[in-house]
Design a protein that fits this description.
By secondary structure, the chain is an all-alpha fold. The protein is 82% helix and 0% strand. It starts with a helix and ends in a 5-residue tail after the last helix.
Length: 80
């Protein structure tokens, strides 16, 4: 868990540094998005569509995966 949190922290700090540098040279997120043909609103719409699609599929998959994982966990031999 420590390694995961450490990685998340490193990504956050690096993103902050890159954001400060880009801001200092007057580059905005809207500028970068416009270069690839998106607007902040259309990006937000794509994210919402992705989440709307993903959540029901995650729940559906977990209805099978979680019980199978529990059974496997219960029948595993004990560790020393």
């Amino acid at each position: 868990m420590y390694q995961f949190l450490s990685t998340i922290f490193k990504i956050a700090v690096t993103s902050l540094i890159v954001g400060v540098v880009l801001s200092a040279i007057d580059i905005t997120a809207a500028d970068l998005l416009s270069k690839i043909g998106l607007t902040p609103e259309s990006l937000w719409q794509h994210i919402q569509t992705g989440v709307t699609w993903a959540i029901p599929n995650i729940i559906l998959g977990s209805l099978i995966v979680v019980p199978v994982w529990i059974v496997i966990y219960l029948f595993r031999p004990p560790r020393a």
